[in-house]
Design goal:
The complex is a heterodimer. Chain A is mainly alpha-helical. Chain A has 21 helices and 2 strands. Chain A starts with a helix and ends in a 23-residue tail after the last helix. Chain B is about 80% helix and about 0% strand. The chains are: A mainly alpha, B mainly alpha.
Chain lengths: ~675, ~210
């Protein structure tokens, strides 16, 4: 064998040309990733925190810590995808009759990574993290049904995110958009590593999400505390259940679509090629059989958060609980019947389009029910305008506008006019930013004190909220106009002067969005500095209604010293009304909890090896990764010592310490909820 | 809740091992949900196969490639292996000694491996006719569907080997029993999928 053959065996397609020296912007981004990673490594070493990180976080099977790690991934990836979005906005503002500053190939990579990250590595980890944190606490469970699988879900997601970060440094990412449509992404047109990066990052993410869905659905069915009937669950748990079921059924088609595309590329098969019997439409169907339910996977958890927020900050029980539950289930069901509306223009008959257009409009009915229920929850409530509530209010208005444009697009005749234009881009951002992101940020602000024991800074929270709203409106409402004017999406350069003012306004919006993200970081920083002032150890800063608020902030590893028994909806509120909250239990028992496991980190490393090896044709690495996964699972099945017991005396000591603290904590009225007087013990009001 | 209540699909251990029975509820239900999710993967591959039936692209079609004799033997082997796995489950439930579980599992393993042998023979005979999955969309879809099932059977065989090792090391303890319950569901699930493949791919392909 020659030297280059040996090189190929060990390093596959990697070469000097894989390094990003072809463009200063790409080189800068790669340096940022490398130095960012180095900085984190040096910081952890300097602080001497490796052992802490390993034992307390990476190998932990605690659903609360796994949830926090999911949300951390989400924030890191959001930072990158927001920068990419702003770069695209700047390009379009500069690209009237001029090439702008980004070459077309780079621009295409940006819209591909932006979409892929925002869906799979920002939104999915964010909602998975919030569900992970809040749902088991809300149903009165000590953990999820399968804590180890939870850790593996995190491993798969983080491996996918790592692959995306690596793609900034080595090789070029796909230019095929977040949906990766063949035949453009086939070998014939795209022989580079880009589509392979996309395929394996998305595949890892889809496997992780399938496992999350199974885990959470089983948790909700089997791990509710005594008395927690399904119809007594907080609404967030209902939406978590619906999302989990959608994940179970909607993620496998994505896995099939990406793997078949990979078989086309690697094994010269013909599922989606132009020749030899390939059928691209099959890809479109498979992808959107995932893609449409995915939209509801993204928004339903936020609907759950909004339901909690509206009820809590109006100091009222949720209006129309049964209606909201039915609407959630209806949305989940209808989500499987509308996928063709993503490709009305691809040549099926008008009758078929009419059926799917009508089905799509049906989604508006249960969603409308929800909007009215939320508004009526506020009606005659004592509404407090805290940050989560502000997000919820902005959502109701903006989401309704977005929903109306969705009804427009559901009409195939209209869709023919505006499909593939910026009108569509405006529509789905209008659904996902208020619908998904605001909800998750509301949930983040709402449950942060529970997770860390101190509130987030209110002022910076409001600034962030203001920037998100202004930024969103300025960045995306002009896109409706641009779409109606006929500007295609993903345009790198244009020659129509009428577009220019709108693209400039949209760019200004992007600046506000960046400011919003910066404000969130400042808020976090300021809150950590003032954590003593904002301390809410007593655990109930918002006068909560559901049982996650009856625990200390942060809750112990086992969540509840004694598993609660509930008798009604809004159980914690009822307990407070009956003066039954904060009573010591009759008896403490030993608690069995899962021990840490290193299987998660092992899977994360093996997952990166498999995906990276496949992308670059480094076959020994792929084999090693698969071998590590299989052997580690088999080895783990021989480990018997997987549980630890927390003795009753220790539970008692911790619980009594908290109860003493609660009794020493001054009660705070709702008027001083966002002032330092709030130490986490709420004045009970009779509403 | 009484301990003999039927808690999950498949064989229940309520009458002989209440502790394992309690724990089985969540584990086996979770595994059942996983199987439903896996079923979606097969459903998508079946749909792809149905779409690609027309993607022959001038190459060989079902009648040129399938061998009903080999496929019938495979069906017999797999159905028989489901029966022998059932015997293993019954032995696990009613016989305190692990000996019979081991015997039935080994027989199941042999049947599974023989099935895989015949399946490899099917695939090789397609290659012998001078075509492979890269010849047409139809052959790609055929290989994707049938070999996905084959990979599942391979993993099932590996799982049986691991369980045999666990019975050697731990005996028939609670964890081993709970794993055998899930392995049983997995094995019967593969049988169900094979019945689909046999009727939709082979019988329909040869009849149509």
């Amino acid at each position: 064998m020659t030297a280059s053959d040996w090189w190929y065996v060990f390093f596959g397609k990697l070469s000097y040309d894989s390094l990003p020296f072809y463009s200063p912007i790409a080189a800068f981004a790669a340096l940022l990733v490398v130095f960012g990673a180095l900085f984190v490594v040096i910081l952890i070493t300097w602080l001497g925190k490796w052992k802490y990180l390993w034992t307390e976080w990476l190998t932990s099977l605690d659903h609360k810590k796994i949830g926090i790690m999911f949300i951390t991934i989400s924030f890191v990836m959001m930072a990158r995808a927001l920068v990419e979005a702003s770069m695209m906005r700047l390009q379009q503002a500069l690209a009237y009759d001029a090439p702008g500053y980004l070459p077309p190939d780079h621009f295409s990579q940006l819209f591909t990574t932006h979409g892929t990250i925002m869906i799979f590595f920002m939104a999915m980890p964010f909602l998975t993290g919030v569900m992970n944190y809040a749902m088991p606490l809300q149903i009165g469970a000590r953990d999820v049904s399968f804590p180890l699988i939870n850790s593996l879900s995190l491993a798969f997601t983080s491996a996918g995110a790592a692959i995306l970060m690596i793609s900034l440094c080595l090789g070029k990412f796909s230019t095929g958009g977040w949906s990766g449509y063949p035949p453009y992404t086939e070998m014939t047109f795209n022989p580079g590593v880009g589509p392979d990066y996309w395929i394996w990052a998305v595949t890892l993410s889809s496997i992780g999400s399938t496992m999350t869905g199974i885990n959470f659905a089983v948790t909700i069915y089997k791990k509710r505390c005594p008395g927690m009937h399904l119809m007594r669950m907080p609404l967030f748990c209902w939406t978590a259940l619906a999302t989990s079921i959608l994940m179970i059924f909607a993620m496998p088609p994505l896995t099939v679509a990406t793997v078949l595309l990979a078989l086309d590329r690697y094994a010269d098969m013909h599922f989606f090629t132009n020749n030899l019997g390939g059928n691209m439409m099959n890809y479109a169907n498979l992808f959107w059989a995932f893609g449409h339910p995915e939209v509801y996977i993204l928004v339903l958890p936020s609907f759950g958060v909004y339901s909690e927020v509206f009820a809590n900050f109006s100091a009222k029980k949720l209006y129309g609980y049964i209606g909201l539950v039915s609407a959630t289930i209806a949305i989940g069901f209808i989500s499987f019947l509308v996928w063709v509306h993503h490709f009305f223009t691809m040549g099926q008959t008008a009758s078929l389009n009419a059926v799917f257009g009508t089905a799509t409009m049906l989604v508006g009915i249960p969603t409308g029910v929800k909007i009215y229920d939320w508004i009526l929850t506020m009606y005659r409530g004592r509404v407090r305008f805290t940050v989560p509530m502000l997000y919820a209010l902005a959502f109701v208005i903006l989401f309704t506008i977005g929903g109306l444009t969705g009804i427009l697009l559901a009409n195939p005749a209209v869709d023919y006019q505006v499909h593939n234009t910026l009108f569509l881009v405006a529509h789905f951002h209008n659904m996902l930013i208020p619908g998904m992101l605001y909800g998750m940020l509301a949930g983040y602000t709402y449950w942060f004190p529970k997770a860390f024991g101190f509130r987030l800074d209110e002022k910076w929270g409001r600034i962030a909220w203001g920037c998100w709203v202004v930024g969103f409106v300025l960045a995306f409402f002009p896109l409706y106009a641009l779409g109606a004017l006929g500007m295609p999406r993903r345009t790198v350069e244009y020659f129509e002067g009428a577009y220019l003012p709108w693209t400039i306004v949209a760019m200004v919006g992007a600046v506000f969005v960046l400011a919003a993200f910066a404000s969130l970081l400042i808020q976090l920083f300021v809150s950590i500095l003032r954590r003593r002032e904002y301390n809410v150890f007593a655990g109930d800063p918002w006068n909560g209604r559901t049982i996650e608020w009856m625990t200390p902030a942060p809750p112990p590893e086992y969540n509840f010293a004694v598993i609660p028994t509930v008798h009604e909806r809004d159980a914690f509120h009822a307990m407070k009304m009956r003066n039954e909250a904060y009573l010591p239990p009759e008896r403490y028992k030993d608690i069995e909890m899962p021990k840490n496991s290193m299987l998660g980190p092992v899977f994360a490393v093996a997952g990166v090896m498999i995906a990276f090896g496949l992308t670059w044709y480094i076959w020994w690495m792929v084999a090693a990764g698969i071998g590590i996964m299989m052997l580690s699972v088999i080895a783990r099945s021989f480990v018997k010592d997987t549980k630890k017991v927390i003795p009753a005396w220790k539970v008692k000591k911790e619980h009594e310490r908290w109860l003493r603290a609660v009794h020493e904590t001054p009660v705070v009225s709702r008027d001083y909820e966002v002032s330092p007087a709030n130490r986490g013990l709420a004045e009970v009001s009779a509403v | 809740m009484s301990s003999w209540e039927q808690k999950h699909p498949g064989i229940n251990l309520g009458t002989i091992d209440p502790e394992a029975h309690e724990e089985a509820e969540e584990l086996v239900f979770g595994f059942w949900v996983y199987l439903m999710s896996d079923m979606i993967i097969f459903a998508m591959l079946f749909a792809t196969y149905a779409v690609e039936l027309r993607g022959i692209a001038g190459g060989p079609g079902p009648k040129d490639l399938y061998d009903i004799k080999s496929v019938s033997i495979e069906t017999g082997l797999l159905l028989m292996s489901s029966f022998t796995f059932g015997m293993a489950s019954l032995a696990m439930k009613y016989n305190p000694r692990p000996k019979f579980v081991v015997y039935w599992l080994i027989i199941t393993l042999c049947l599974g491996l023989t099935f895989l042998g015949f399946e490899s023979h099917d695939f090789l005979s397609v290659f012998d006719k001078g075509v492979g999955p890269s010849r047409s969309g139809f052959i790609s879809a055929y290989f994707a569907l049938v070999s996905t099932h084959g990979i599942h059977v391979t993993l099932g065989c590996l799982w049986i080997c691991v369980m045999l090792a666990q019975i050697m090391v731990f005996g028939l303890d609670k964890d081993v029993k709970l794993r055998l319950l899930r392995l049983g569901l997995f094995w019967h699930f593969l049988d169900v999928v094979w019945v689909g493949i046999f009727s939709i791919v082979y019988l329909q392909g040869l009849a149509g």
